[in-house]
Amino acid sequence: MNRHAVLTDDAIDDAALRAVLEAAGIEAQVKPLHLQRAAKVAADIIGEYPEGQREHARDTLVRWMDEALDTADDARLKRITDSIEKLKRDHGELETWRCEGGYIALEVPTAFITSIANAANDARRDIELRTLTGLLLPQLERIAPSILQDVLGAEYASNRGDYERLVAMVCRDLLEHHN
Predict the structure, then answer these.
(1) Cβ(92)–Cβ(85) under 8 Å?
(2) Dist. CA 135–CA 163, nearest whole Å
(3) pTM of the model
């Protein structure tokens, strides 16, 4: 069986691709590849090339991987930019929080900072905090774990709860800044 890599956008899933291939009379296995797995598959394929063609194939693979990484970075940046614009549109004024050293910058709706600070009880505060964390996810997901660990220190637990702990810290810092 020949192996081929097919690059599609997010709108095409493996079932849709398999259906198109089957409709064309092509029997195939279709598996989604994340970049790490795609690189391994491509390296295996390159290993099957004749010795004189491997260097060109490797250079092509590196170019494709660079393009895929650039595309992923562009998509991530667009998600972040769109989410910040939506925050501004839906929740009004935003304030920028920067951690010490400036490695993390978050755009936070000031209405949530006030709402969390003035919550009538802990349950209401937790709901507001979870809501804000969800709204900030596109910004939070770009933070490297090592940087998140440096900022949270002993509170770092290496799980999704770290985002909520960071957002709580951000709210405390911004609230102190306002007072």
Answers:
(1) no
(2) 11
(3) 0.66
